[in-house]
Automatic annotation (TrEMBL):
The family this protein is said to belong to: Belongs to the phosphoglycerate mutase family. BPG-dependent PGAM subfamily.
InterPro entries on file: His_Pase_superF_clade-1 (IPR013078), His_PPase_superfam (IPR029033), PG/BPGM_mutase_AS (IPR001345), Phosphogly_mut1 (IPR005952)
Protein name: 2,3-bisphosphoglycerate-dependent phosphoglycerate mutase
Marked site (Transition state stabilizer) residue numbers: H189
Pfam families noted in UniProt: His_Phos_1 (PF00300)
Binding sites annotated in the UniProt record for substrate: 8-15, 60, 87-90, 98, 114-115, 190-191
CDD domains named among the record's database cross-references: HP_PGM_like
Record-level Gene Ontology MF annotations: phosphoglycerate mutase activity
Keywords (A to Z) from UniProt: Gluconeogenesis, Glycolysis, Isomerase
Positions of the catalytic residues: H9 (tele-phosphohistidine intermediate), E87 (proton donor/acceptor)
Pathway the protein acts in: Carbohydrate degradation; glycolysis; pyruvate from D-glyceraldehyde 3-phosphate: step 3/5
GO biological process terms, semicolon-separated: gluconeogenesis; glycolytic process
Gene name, Swiss-Prot/TrEMBL: gpmA
Origin species: Weissella jogaejeotgali
Length: 239
């Protein structure tokens, strides 16, 4: 069997401000740093030995992975970063306060944009490498995305589109490492990880809406040779 561990990044600066974050590259808050370290301590207590790490190209996920691995004394393991593990792109909602958005469009509409499986948020009308959102550069055209295939740079995503974006990387890289018997850790985002969970656990379109992955609480799977789930454990800090 191989182990797969999923870690949602710690609280980001924009999480703390209740802003839609998406692909905007924010850092961890102080609370987020503590959550990432706690995730690593929980993994160290379990004694899990990793062979391969994956993360997105966004700072909050990369930092979380590194802080967690540092706590397990495993920062040395091979690591691959991919834009395909980025958070869901929230389109024109990025940078908006969630409460303000609810006042503008209504609670039901914002809830639908956030939680429905296949309803898209308002899309960005344009993308440029100089565009900023609340002082943060939106790096649509910077070099971290130079390998994004033509026409695949998102202007807004729902969970269905996010899953379609994540799955090629699962098939090309992650699943192959697991089938080779490697223990894998992924530091990523709430929605890219929910997309993976939907695929791994074969969760229905309706039921995935009720699945939440908390910041800094590792999900640990034991998978058989066909990547079927043998066991699952969510590691939580002591109250």
């Amino acid at each position: 069997m191989a182990k797969l561990v999923l870690i949602r990044h710690g609280q980001s600066e924009w999480n703390a401000l209740n802003l839609f974050n998406g692909w905007v590259d924010t850092k961890l808050s102080d609370k987020g740093v503590a959550q990432a370290k706690t995730a690593g301590q929980l993994l160290a207590k379990e004694g899990i030995q990793f062979d391969q790490a994956y993360t997105s190209v966004l700072t909050r996920a990369i930092t979380t992975l590194h802080l967690a691995l540092e706590e397990t004394d495993q920062m040395w393991i091979p690591e691959v970063k991919s834009w395909r593990l980025n958070e869901r792109h929230y389109g024109a909602l990025q940078g908006l306060n969630k409460a303000d958005a609810a006042k503008k469009w209504g609670d039901d509409q914002v809830h639908q944009w956030r939680r429905s499986y296949d309803v898209l948020p308002p899309l960005l009308e344009e993308q440029s490498e100089t565009m900023t959102i609340d002082g943060k550069t939106y790096p649509a055209l910077d070099r971290r995305y130079q390998d994004v295939p033509a026409g695949e740079m998102p202007k807004g995503e729902n969970l269905k589109v996010t899953l379609d974006r994540v799955l090629p990387f699962w098939d090309s890289d992650i699943s192959k490492a697991l089938k080779a018997g490697k223990n894998v850790v992924i530091g990523a985002h709430g929605n890219s990880l929910r997309a993976l969970v939907k695929h791994i656990e074969q969760i229905s379109d309706d039921d995935i809406m009720g699945v939440e992955i908390a910041n800094g609480e590792p999900w640990v799977y034991d998978l058989d040779e066909n990547l079927n789930v043998v066991s699952k454990q969510i590691l939580k800090p002591e109250a």
